[in-house]
Write a structure and sequence with these properties.
- By secondary structure, the protein is mainly beta.
- The protein has 4 helices and 20 strands.
- The protein has 2 domains: 46 residues, FAH (SH3 type barrels), CATH 2.30.30; 196 residues, Fumarylacetoacetate hydrolase, domain 2.
- The radius of gyration is 17 Å and the shape is globular.
- The protein binds magnesium ion.
Length: 252
C-alpha cells in the first residue's frame, strides 16, 4: 500500500494512493483502517506530512560512500541523534532558514515509519514494527553543527524535517536509488545498498534506548553530494518506488 495523509475541504483525511487516485480510509492507516469505497483524485487533496511523530530519531554517517567523501572512519555502531517533532513538514511546505547567512544543507534520506510500539526489538523481528518508508530531508545548519556540542540548532529548527509524499511498504529499503535535485539539477545520486547499517539493525539499536510508537520516524542517514540551499531554491528528494518530496526554500 501507498499511504497518504491529506487535507480536503478543511478536514484531515487518510487514503491509499493508486496512481493518481486516492482511495479513502475510514481512519488513520496507523489504526487498522479500512477502505471506505470512496475515491478522490490526487489533485483534489493537499498532501500533508504522512505522519505526526512523537519521536524523530536520526542516524548520522550511514552511507559508506558519504563516509569516504567526508574522510570519516566507518562507525562501529549507528550514531544516533534527535530532531524535533516540530521540524516535520509535508510536501510543498516551505523550509524556512533561520540563519540565511549560514551554510544550510539538504540531506536526502530514506525514512522508516513505525507501525506499532517498539521496545528492545531484535533485528530479525524489526520488519514486524515497520509500516513502511518515506522520503526525508534532514535539513542541516552546518555552522551550528560545527559550533555547538550537540545538533538541536543545526537540525531541529522548525521546518528542518520535510517528509513525504507517501509511506509505502512496496519497496526493498536496501535496493532503491536515492537522489536530491536542487532547482532541477541532480546533487545527490546514490543507492540505499550503500548503507553501512541496514534498517533492521538501526531499529534494533534505536529501540534498545528509546521506545518508538506508531507514527514515529527514523531518518537513516544521507549519501554523498550534500550541499547548500538558499531562499528561492526548490529542493526535491526522490527515492525510487516512493516518489518525490518537493519543498521550496525561504527565509524564516
Ligand atoms: Mg542526516
Amino acid at each position: 500500500m501507498r499511504y497518504v495523509r491529506f487535507t480536503r475541504g478543511g478536514k484531515v483525511g487518510y487514503g491509499a494512493l493508486s496512481g493518481k487516485t486516492v482511495r479513502l480510509l475510514d481512519r488513520s492507516f496507523l489504526q487498522n483502517a479500512r477502505l471506505t469505497g470512496e475515491k478522490v483524485r490526487l489533485s483534489e487533496v493537499r498532501l500533508l506530512a504522512p505522519v505526526v511523530p512523537r519521536t524523530v530519531m536520526a542516524i548520522g554517517l550511514n552511507y559508506a560512500d558519504h563516509a569516504k567523501e567526508s574522510n570519516m572512519p566507518i562507525p562501529e555502531e549507528p550514531f544516533l541523534f534527535l530532531k524535533t517533532p516540530g521540524c516535520i513538514i509535508g510536501p510543498g511546505d516551505p523550509i524556512r532558514l533561520v540563519v540565511p547567512e549560514h551554510r544550510n544543507d539538504y540531506e536526502a534520506e530514506l525514512v522508516v515509519v513505525i507501525r506499532k510500539r517498539a521496545h528492545a526489538v531484535p533485528a530479525e523481528k524489526a520488519h514486524e514494527f515497520i509500516l513502511g518508508y518515506t522520503c526525508g530531508n534532514d535539513v542541516s545548519d552546518r555552522d551550528y553543527q560545527k559550533s555547538d556540542s550537540q545538533w538541536t540548532r543545526s537540525k531541529g529548527c522548525d521546518t528542518y524535517g520535510p517528509i513525504g509524499p507517501v509511506v509505502t511498504d512496496e519497496i526493498d529499503p536496501h535496493n532503491v536509488r536515492i537522489q536530491t535535485r536542487l532547482n532541477g539539477v541532480v546533487k545527490q545520486d546514490s543507492h540505499t545498498s550503500q548503507m553501512i547499517f541496514p534498517v533492521q539493525r538501526l531499529i534494533e539499536h534505536v529501540t534498545r534506548y528509546v521506545t518508538l510508537v506508531p507514527g514515529d520516524v527514523v531518518f537513516t542517514g544521507t549519501p554523498p553530494g550534500i550541499g547548500p540551499m538558499k531562499a528561492g531554491d526548490t529542493v526535491e528528494v526522490e527515492i525510487e518506488g516512493i516518489g518525490v518530496l518537493k519543498n521550496p526554500v525561504a527565509n524564516a
